[in-house]
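## retry 2 of 3
previous attempt timed out at serialization; input unchanged, resubmitting
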Amino acid sequence: MIHEPYAALARFPAWVPAEVRNYLIHTETGLPLRSLARTQGVHASTVLRQVRRIEGRRDDPLFDAGLKLLSEALAKAPDAPLDLPRPETEDILRVLRRLGEPGAILAFARDMDQAVVVRDSPEGSAARTATLERGLAVTLAMQDWIASDDPLARVVRYRISQAGRMALRDMTARSENRARAMAEAPTPFRHRDLSDDPTWQGATQQRGRGAPMESPLIGLARRRDKDGRPFLSRDMVRAGERLREDFELAHVGQGAAGFDWTRALTGVIDGSRASQEPGSAKARVLDALDFLGPGLADVALRTCCFLEGMEMLEKRMGWSARSGKVVLRIALQRLLLHYATQSAESRKIG
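## retry succeeded, writing output
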């Protein structure tokens, strides 16, 4: 049993919410609520309300899974700090950004190792926009960034909470500040080696300031050209979303989280491509980037996969205003041709 409140609180990683720490220390070690309250300089009734709130959330399968994980860690190492890694900020931001889109929900089944984010498509069907590991979903629930109205359902549906939206705004602002510091030099529209560009390290980049909380493709699809037709057709949007979905899947259980995508853009893929199983999500993304070629691949990956807005894209590439969307449309037209060619080849094989 832990007798020193300060030592008990210090065992938890900083990202574990204070009320969760209080609940586990009280329930797992038997430390009285008054001792916890004196340690933190609050009234005992405050800690009691925290404990009751956490107990009321144990019907949530993701939240309860997080509590069990922390409880097991406490039992295994009674006196040592809990070495529990937190998911990468880029992965958290990637999922929160998708959940921030209109009509987006996170769906999770209790017996599954993964969760998915889906969003209503213009046709009325549900389109999958992100796939995430169970541990990342647990982190979102523990931070109170997602919430469910029916936690007892067989497939629990979560929506981003107000706390989640605040966290999304803060993370996006910090990421944009870093991106601006890294993007002082313009990028010409030509084949070039991006291996020294820090903004390409990692799986996700951010939109420009003021960009909507949804995919740039959705926003451009609402615009009309001079003839009154949508600037991006539904088929183009589907092609971009298909590339993004493969990109998301490649980062879940397929070893692509640390993959250097700059090598794909510059054509220096060496043996990494051959080691992939034919038809894997990572191989499909690489095939699409190869088909697009340098330049168009830059635009497709930044916009469709990294969800970077037009303003930030044009600044990075050194283009004039409103030119990025034209190049993006060309990239999506070619991407659509790539997927149509693949479908034709599949029919021939069958």
